[in-house]
Amino acid sequence: MLCAVYKTRRKEGMYLYVPGKDKFEQVPEPLLKQFGQPQLVMLLPLGKRGELAGVDKTVLEKALSEQGFYLQMPPKQENWLAEHRQSLGASARSEDKK
């Protein structure tokens, strides 16, 4: 299966996978509206790939065959300062101590 990967300018790290170039028919209209103008990143032959970065290949293939698309969300941003403050018993935010 040939998969097309698109990115959005609206949110870094968010990608939309569809089962072919410009195959957006199965993508819900509200999602496309929020995603904005899709920018093609690459065409990806899934059959020849062993692993994919950031996406479980079996989950991707199942979503493409059942839903017609797969939306990869950006990884959650960690706040190391807040975690460190909490480990010391302080508030996660410095403004909270006032």
TrEMBL record:
Among HAMAP family, the record links this protein to:
UPF0745
Q: Where are the transmembrane segments?
A: none
Residues in YcgL domain copies: 1-85
Q: What is this protein called?
A: YcgL domain-containing protein DXV75_13210
Q: Which PROSITE patterns match?
A: YCGL (PS51648)
**Which segments of the protein form a coiled coil according to its record?**
none
Please give one Pfam family short name.
Answer: YcgL
